[in-house]
Amino acid sequence: MRIAVVGSGYVGLVSAACLAEIGHDVISVDADVQKIADLKRGEVPIHEQLLPQLLQRHRGNRLTFSSSVSTAVAESEAVFITVGTPQDDSGEPDLSYVESVASEIASALTAPKLIVEKSTVPVCTCESIRKVLLLHGADPSHFSVASNPEFLREGTAVTDFLYPDRIVMGVDDDFSAAMLYGIYRPLTEGTYYREEGAIPCPGLQPEGARVIVTNAKSAELIKHASNAFLAMKISYINMVANIAETVGADIDQVCAGLGADPRIGPQFLKAGIGYGGSCFPKDVSAFHSVATQCGIDFPLLAEVTRINLAQRRSFVKKVRTALWTLRGKRLGVLGLAFKGGTDDVRESPAIAIIQELLKEGASVCAYDPAAMLKARDVLPPGSIDYAENEYQAAAQRDALLLLTDWERFAQLDLPKLHKAMKLPIIIDGRNLFSPSQMAAAGFLYYSMGRALQITESMPSLWHGIHFSPQAITMQPTRASTA
Ligand code: UDX
Ligand code: UDX
Questions:
Q1: 0.70 cut: is pTM over it?
Q2: Position in ligand 2 atom list of the atom nearest CA 277
Q3: Residues taking part in catalysis
Q4: What burial letters (b/e) apply to 338-351, b meaning 16+ CB within 10 Å?
Q5: Per-residue DSSP letter, 431
Q6: Which residue in 1, 108, 199, 447 has its CB near the most CB atoms, within 10 A?
Q7: Which long-range contacts (CB under 8 A, 24 or more apart) does 259-268 make?
Q8: Residue 218 Cα, ligand 2 centroid: separation in angstroms?
């Protein structure tokens, strides 16, 4: 099928590349002419594993790029809207980009086409898009509008798209249903997975992707409710972690117990400095304003956001406690992106925490495997130092903060790190190590929801010093148990 995808951001570009991968002829459209020129030249504007391969594989044949919405729509049978729906100052989603794209689409509707809303939008947006199309002169027999929310996560976006937990088709007529079934058939019938050269997904060889057909409003609600629920789960476990830390329990053990209950499930129970990114923060607040507009009081969502922001503050407090004062302290930071596997720093807890530490007079030298270029937009050089690698960021530092869950950080050479640092103090906002491992390596290791461990092999000076309100457990050094 000939498909136009309007908006070549994280969701749009991955969707366009994956739709080409499963056999469609796709035009990826963006208003940012520089981005389109870069994409045509072979550049990849975002850090996302497998995306460069897909763009390489399909660029110029099944996948082309344009900055003209009307041309792309005229040449296509279906049009996906994946433009940004950022939060405005009042916390409401700004739908003006969706509206402007819809008005551009209207003028190019010369035959029946399917318009697919894929950006995350409040319930009833489908109706607003239909109204805009009619207002801009579109013939009602020339379009159907459907909702097909995207659930991909940054960092695993390509396999999330190709191996979805479910494909939600929010359709209000048969034409929309038939078109969406046609578009996703290679995944729903599993033919794509049996193709030679298909992108594999470790541990997964599905027969076919699961489809959930609903009306458009239900599909829109599924997306907001899903993101808000996941964000709530994270805020919940962070509160439990705060209790665990205070009483000397261990959040890892607690999560193992909680997650073993299939009604709860082990996923999204990772305690830390809270969630960030372009989705959860804005979708929780957008869903809250949807409830308010419906005259429904939904304070739980406000609490999810409040807990999330408080988690950042309590981490700064943890740093202050570990170092006593912050003014003049030289801190190393590993991680700037809102999560591992992406270069995206939008609503990144790491950035917010660094900004708070700078306000308190500390200096920061940071390293991130992918996000340093984008971080410079919010933390210009001079406000912090940017290191070339993890050890340089830690060199001669009073403490090292771990703020993003990049896998490679958990593989660090601890003796080398210990030698590089001025003080062996690590404050881990993502629980990348185990307290016993770090104590054995001679670090004062603060983490989320777990007790600080002191081993007998540590300088006796440290024994009995009250390092923090965090519970402390004395661990015999390995040697002494011999
Ligand atoms: C977007 C939405 O923000 C999010 O709510 C939804 O869940 C998925 O799509 P993302 O892909 O991360 O998320 O957005 P972003 O990376 O900002 O990309 C949006 C793209 O749309 C940008 O490249 C922007 O240039 C483009 N755009 C925006 C247009 O092409 N036309 C417009 O009118 C507005
Ligand atoms: C999210 C949703 O997962 C995805 O379905 C939707 O389409 C877009 O929004 P994304 O924001 O890319 O995806 O990342 P995700 O992996 O969900 O992480 C979101 C934030 O929550 C990150 O800051 C991450 O560090 C944090 N997180 C996630 C936790 O703190 N603990 C967890 O257990 C999981």
A1: yes
A2: 11
A3: 279
A4: bbbbbbbbbbbbbb
A5: -
A6: 447
A7: 268/230, 268/233, 268/234, 268/237
A8: 22
Amino acid at 347: E
Q: Which residue's C-alpha comes closest to atom 14 of ligand 2?
A: 153
Residue with tokens 């991955």: 14
- DSSP per residue, 113-165: EEEEE-S---TTHHHHHHHHHHHTT--GGGEEEEE------TTSHHHHHHS-S
Residue 180 amino acid letter: L
Q: Distance between CA 124 and CA 293 in Å, rounded?
A: 12
Secondary element (H or E) of residue 472 = strand 472-475
Q: What is the pLDDT of residues 76-129, one digit of tens each?
A: 999 999 999 999 988 899 999 999 999 999 999 999 999 999 999 999 999 999
Q: Are 335 and 297 in contact (CB under 8 A)?
A: no
Q: Which amino acid is at 313?
A: R
Helix/strand/coil for 278: coil
**Residue 135 corresponds to which tokens in the numbers above?**
């207002």
CA–CA distance, 157 with 11 (Å, rounded to integer): 8
Taking the centre of ligand 2 as the mean of its atom positions, its distance from the CA of residue 88, in whole angstroms, is: 21
Mutate to test the pocket of ligand 1, among 47, 82, 377 (most ligand atoms within 8 A of CB): 82
User: CB under 8 Å to 234, separation ≥6 — which residues?
Assistant: 268, 270, 274, 275, 280, 308
Q: Judging by beta carbons within 10 Å of its beta carbon (0-12, 13-18, 19+), is residue 89 exposed, middle or buried?
A: exposed
Checking if the pLDDT of 461 tops 70, the result is: no
- pLDDT tier at 224, thresholds 50, 70, 90: very high
DSSP, collapsed to helix, strand or coil, labels residue 311 as helix
Question: Ligand 1 centroid vs 85 CA: distance in angstroms?
Answer: 7
